[in-house]
């Protein structure tokens, strides 16, 4: 079905932004305030997350590598927000030149899609290690998934590929730049390559979203099935609770990114057509509002680390309480880090880790993947401990 765009009040020529002012004057202050808040909270949360991952967390695995890179991508995205705040605070006037405008805009989108791709990789890693590794238990499975080397290589390739794609986007002129303007709706009838590239990134998002749905859906079903098979075991309730928490990741991912990418296809399609001034204004306004939800994800990532991961939560509270001299219990070891590491090792000595895309779903014993008769013969219950 072809999309029909409003054709009233325009001729065959494309409206210029000068004859069709796009920005809503009433939105300048709210946008500046909201982007400022996202920047401040996101900066504090992601710096705290990196501090925990580098200094308080000793477990080295693929999920930790991916989460560090998610935090780094969020920080680069957040570094672009002060330029948007400045733009709106100055009356939607850009004074830093067209090249800087393209650099800020493209780096924002690059790191948004790097973060999205990393979330898909984390869910795929968890799915393969929990659901699809039966062959590896017999020594003939994907051994490259067992350590963190594959995640390091994948992150290097992801960042390298992203830079290779974004540099031409910054360097090549489109011919539709307007002096003093940035972040506004643009026609791309003479820059179709960039429009098609944007549609390709939309397709990448929906692919990642499908991977998330399948991976976490099946992992959660496995946990719920385990809790139902042995409702009397001590950790049965924790399996069910952890399964429900896994859907928090999908919920927040959906809230932040699905509205924007649902609308994005119509937005890009309108850029390739002659559309009315009213349509251009509607597209620009809707894009700004949807983009706020996408930027909000950089604030929610650290909250999910804290909420879904018990070890992150405990290590952070312990370290902050000691820093603020609010920890009243006598110290057992010389540092909270040593105590945390000893506790982490004791909980993980005999169980593989099941991590979520923002933290961990828990420690699952091999009984989750064992045959029914094996589970019935087991006298010890599985232990779940949320991962940081």
Descriptive key words:
single chain, 388 residues, mainly alpha, Rhopdopsin 7-helix transmembrane proteins, 2% strand, globular
Topology of this protein?
Blueprint: H1 28-56, H2 62-89, H3 98-130, H4 134-137, H5 149-171, H6 192-229, H7 236-271, H8 277-308, H9 310-323, H10 336-347, E1 353-355, E2 360-363, H11 372-376
Antiparallel strand pairs: 1-2
What does this structure look like?
The radius of gyration is 24 Å and the shape is globular. The chain has a single domain, classed as Rhodopsin 7-helix transmembrane proteins (Rhopdopsin 7-helix transmembrane proteins, Up-down Bundle). Residues 1-17, 133-141, 330-367 and 369-388 have low confidence and may be disordered. The protein contains 11 helices and 2 strands. With 388 residues, it is mainly α. It is found in: Cell membrane.
């Amino acid at each position: 079905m072809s999309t029909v765009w409003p054709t009233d009040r325009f001729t065959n020529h494309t409206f210029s932004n000068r004859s069709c002012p796009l920005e809503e004057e009433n939105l300048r202050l709210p946008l500046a305030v909201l982007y400022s808040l996202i920047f401040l909270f996101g900066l504090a949360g992601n710096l705290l997350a990196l501090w925990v991952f580098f200094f308080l967390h000793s477990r080295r695995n693929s999920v930790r590598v991916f989460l560090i890179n998610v935090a780094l991508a969020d920080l680069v995205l957040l570094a672009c927000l002060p330029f948007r705040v400045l733009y709106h605070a100055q009356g939607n006037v850009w004074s830093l030149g067209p090249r800087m405008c393209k650099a800020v805009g493209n780096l924002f989108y690059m790191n948004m899609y790097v973060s999205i791709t990393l979330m898909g990789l984390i869910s795929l890693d968890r799915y393969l290690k929990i659901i699809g590794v039966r062959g590896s238990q017999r020594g003939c499975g994907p051994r490259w998934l067992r350590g963190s080397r594959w995640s390091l290589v994948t992150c290097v390739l992801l960042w390298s590929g992203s830079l290779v794609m974004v540099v031409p986007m910054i360097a090549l002129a489109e011919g539709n730049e307007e002096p003093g303007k940035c972040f506004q709706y643009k026609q791309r009838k003479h820059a179709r390559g960039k429009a098609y590239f944007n549609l390709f990134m939309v397709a990448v998002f929906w692919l990642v979203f499908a991977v998330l749905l399948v991976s976490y859906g099946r992992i959660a079903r496995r946990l719920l099935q385990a809790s139902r098979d042995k409702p009397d075991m001590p950790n049965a309730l924790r399996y069910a609770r952890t399964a429900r928490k896994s859907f928090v990741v999908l919920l927040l991912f959906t809230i932040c990114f699905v509205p924007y990418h649902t609308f994005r296809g119509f937005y890009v399609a309108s850029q390739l057509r002659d559309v009315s001034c009213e349509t251009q204004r509607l597209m620009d306004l809707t894009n700004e509002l949807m983009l706020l939800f996408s930027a909000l994800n950089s604030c929610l990532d650290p909250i999910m680390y804290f909420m879904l991961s018990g070890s992150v939560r405990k290590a952070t509270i312990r370290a902050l309480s000691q820093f603020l001299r609010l920890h009243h219990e006598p110290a057992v070891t010389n540092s909270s880090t040593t105590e945390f590491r000893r506790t982490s090792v004791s909980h993980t000595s005999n169980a593989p880790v099941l991590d979520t895309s923002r933290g961990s779903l828990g420690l699952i014993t091999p009984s989750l993947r064992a045959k029914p008769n094996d589970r019935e013969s087991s006298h010890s219950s599985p232990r779940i401990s949320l991962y940081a």
